[in-house]
Amino acid sequence: DTEVTQTPKHLVMGMTNKKSLKCEQHMGHRAMYWYKQKAKKPPELMFVYSYEKLSINESVPSRFSPECPNSSLLNLHLHALQPEDSALYLCASGQRGGRNEKLFFGSGTQLSVL
Amino acid sequence: AQSVAQPEDQVNVAEGNPLTVKCTYSVSGNPYLFWYVQYPNRGLQFLLKYITGDNLVKGSYGFEAEFNKSQTSFHLKKPSALVSDSALYFCAVRDEDAGGTSYGKLTFGQGTILTVHP
Predict the structure, then answer these.
(1) Is the peptide bond before A43 cis (omega within 30 degrees of 0)?
(2) Chain mean pLDDT for chain A
(3) Is B114 left (phi over 0), alpha (psi -120 to 50) or beta?
(4) Is A96 on the interface with B (CB under 8 A)?
(5) The pLDDT value given to residue B100
(6) Which phi and psi angles does B104 have, rounded to 5°?
(7) Fewest CB within 10 angstroms: A14, B6, B23, B105, which?
């Protein structure tokens, strides 16, 4: 299994809603990532988890709250978002070092904030 | 800080012709360079990674990348383009490990839209 699965694929939410994005991988990767991507722009790193611990937070607003319940799962909890938070949210997992180093990306959750 | 630049927003080639997508890098130590491709409404897919000492790196789908230290470049190439190669291509750089179990940050260039015409 070389897939990163993200749910839901599409999400529409109001500014007062609370929702969660989910990400799952079963490749045994110990690094998992959240990226935000606007249309035709590069992905922007939000968070990195290493061995289920948050290792990088790119100064993301607190209305985004990541969670890594175990080595296979990664969640992104959303609360009180703004319309400018509308974007494609990508989850990735990876193995470090050597010739096999690469990130595996999910297909993303397309988020619209109304 | 590590960075990569992709000087062309868009590249157009005819099917069957060779293609080049350009990338230059700026790093303070060893370069950890990658190419990823993104098809419409999809996540990114890994194409290839620079391996120290290999000036020509071969990757997926017939792509290769040429590393040039003197020009600080890592251009993506393919000898014969296909219409199905049309996509958004990103060059990326990872910072050096801080050591231990820390995973580094991958930073992407602005991306180049490749269009291959029949």
Answers:
(1) no
(2) 93
(3) beta
(4) yes
(5) 47
(6) -80, 175
(7) A14
The model's pLDDT over B83-115, given as tens digits with 9 standing for 90+, comes to 999 999 999 998 776 554 456 788 899 999 999
Q: Do A31 and B103 touch (CB under 8 A)?
A: yes
Q: Angle CA(B77)–CA(B22)–CA(A40) in degrees, nearest 5?
A: 105
- What is d(CA B68, CA A84) in angstroms, rounded to the nearest whole number? 39
pLDDT of residue B88: 97
Q: Which of A73, A77, A85 shows the shortest CA–CA distance to A112?
A: A85
A105 to chain B nearest CA, in Å? 5
Which of B8, B23, B44, B97 should we substitute to test contact with A (largest number of A Cβ atoms within 10 Å)? B44
Element (H, E) at A92: strand A87-95
Q: How far apart are CA B104 and CA A55, in angstroms?
A: 9
In order of A2, A33, A36, A51, B38, the CA distances from A78 in angstroms are 27, 16, 13, 23, 25
User: Using alpha carbons only, what angle is made at residue A48 by residues B57 and B49, rounded to the nearest 5 degrees?
Assistant: 0
> Does B105 reach chain A within 8 Å, measured CB to CB?
yes
Of B42, B49, B102, nearest to A107 by CB-CB distance is: B42
Give the integer Cα–Cα distance in Å for A75 and B35.
27
Residues 6+ apart with CB under 8 A from B14: B81, B116, B117
B104 reaches A (C-beta below 8 A)? yes
Q: What is the residue whose two structure tokens read 């990103």?
A: B90
